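# step 3/5: fold
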Amino acid sequence: MLPPALLRRTLAAAARQALPRAGPQVHLATGPRQNNGIFYEIRTYDIKPAKMKEFLEVVSKYFHFRTAHSELVGFWYSELGAMNKVLHIWKYDNFAHRTAVRHALANDKDWQGKFISAALPLVEKQHNEVAYLVPWCQLGKPSKEGGVYEWVTFQMKPGGPALWGEAFRAAINAHINTGYTKLIGVFHTEYGLLNTVHVLWWNESPDQRAAGRHSAHEDARVVAAVRDSVRFLESQQNMLLIPLQCSPLK
């Protein structure tokens, strides 16, 4: 049997061997978020061909029953990049808030009887996502009412903002700083297709948007930032959106 002092030293050495070895730290988090529970539900509906006019009339007549329950950020229909689509964004304080709203809507006789009963037969497909504003972006507003919105969807490589966030932010800031377009919001998905980022821009008109895009393509600052970010990009798609009268973002 070992002497007590030697036994203590042997056990201490064994304990040190069992400790994790120092080395590079692996950060599993996908990146920072806003420091509150606020999130946005993005709903996209495909409307049956030839039924868009009728659907928009139903929205105009009855949608106030829906906005009585929670905050609508914006409601648009697609003009270019997709056909027969509408997109609306809802703001929630947290998931319990959304659950309470959905429960109230299910029991709202006006909403169910007037809007849902009339609108559902006109809808071909529904899709929703939950997204957070990226932490370096606050939800903006256009400088004036009118104009058009561009909804750009970026499918990024797996890994989250910890992998591509810095390069993506630099590309967005390059567009902001040059003043070619107005940023409204940058949304990163939590539910839906992951590693998706939606960017909402505003321009006074489609022609102003086209002129700004042409200028951006010739601006070395924008080109350099975009070239650095595209190495993390899988695909991208955009739509030109027109706001409805009920949309707070007009």
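# step 4/5: annotate
The radius of gyration is 24 Å.
# step 5/5: archive (pending)
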